[in-house]
Amino acid sequence: MNWQPIxxxxxxxxxxxxxxxxxxxxxxxxxxxxxxxxAEQLGVTRPTLREALQRLxxxxxxxxxxxxxxxxxxxxxxxxxxxxSVLARLPSQxxxxxxxxxxxxxxxxxxxxxxxxxxNAGAELAxxxxxxxxxxxxxxxxxxxxxxxxxxxxxxxxxPVFRLxxxxxxxxxxxxxxxxxxxxxxxxxxxxxxxxxxxxxxRGAAGEAEALTQRVMxxxxxxxxxxxxxxx
Length: 232
Description:
mainly alpha; Arc Repressor Mutant, subunit A; two-stranded antiparallel ribbon; 11 helices; 2% strand
């Protein structure tokens, strides 16, 4: 039986406060109600509320100073990677250009970890990519395969931070991947990428893999923008 984990009161309070911040109920730079009032609104004890507030302050959502009201930070400028992780789990709360920003970041990072991975484990990557030549021509299959590939690339790269950054976006990656790969031209574009990356991996051509990945990631951004503008 798959038991659903029981959410602790502080976690529940934290999630409710996050929803209130992201929905604009507590906008950026606003002050939260006093501790007693806020605890009553959330239906928790004051120690439980303090625990939730401290968590949110740690991750860059709130500014807590002794003798002052708790302030909602401008989390886009004052937040941490934990803010990105939360936004990745809540697609409905993301700004319209959030995915484009993530794709831009991937375009900067993916060429580097692709080069390192081909240099360190070209033969292993080639064996994995051989299966990509027989991918089922469906969006879910491509979305999962693309995620698996980037996971493998980051695992075999020298810099472990690449994988830590990627891990925070698992749910969002698959969600947006299914939307992206709904379009046949996107599946064809990525299919050609997998085949060429396979050739680079077989030859251990790390520099070529880096240049290829940079070009393909940039083209993916342009494809996404054009597809989204076509839907609007």
